[in-house]
Amino acid sequence: MTNYGDEATVREILTGTGDTWAVVGLSNNTARAAYGVARVLQKYGKRIVPVHPKAETVLGEPGYASLAEIPFPVDVVDVFVNSALAGEVADQAVAVGARAVWFQLGVVDEAAYDRTRAAGVSMVMDKCPAIEIPLLD
To answer: Sheet containing 76-79: which strands, arranged edge to edge?
Structure first.
């Protein structure tokens, strides 16, 4: 399998790209992976921005229904939607000027990866930041 997140890119996104992470698919459902990952990101000093159709406040942060509705710059877009929808989210991330896109474990869209990289935006795919970030210490 192709490695869609070499160690240097993973490290750069987690440490050098910025601390505002839009988490697409994040809701108050504590059983979902997005919730646990967002908590880990907060623990490591990241500002999480919930993006979900419900636009609910999660982990103390106000939510937005879409990336386009966030009224401030976003550094990283962390994508917790299924692979069939993820490419559209990656395109939206590029459109709003995100500096990086992160597709969670099991989320793969090779065409979206190629488009995002071609737009000059860093990208990691099929990895989990909550697994990767503690490894940086």
So the answer is: 47-51, 20-24, 76-79, 100-103, 122-124
What are the per-10-residue average pLDDT scores of the chain (137 residues)?
Answer: 80 95 96 96 97 96 98 97 95 98 95 96 95 88
Q: What confidence tens digit (pLDDT) does each residue in 41-51 have? A: 999 999 999 99
pLDDT at 4: 83
CA angle centred on 68, ends 64 and 24, rounded to 5°: 50
Question: Which pair of tokens denotes residue 23?
Answer: 């988490």
Q: How would DSSP label each residue in the chain?
A: ---SS-HHHHHHHHHTS-SEEEEET--S-TTSHHHHHHHHHHHTTPEEEEE-TT---BTTB--BSSGGG-SS--SEEEE-S-HHHHHHHHHHHHHTT-SEEEEPTT---HHHHHHHHHTT-EEE-S--HHHHGGGG-
- Contact partners, residue 44, CB within 8 Å, separation at least 6: 133
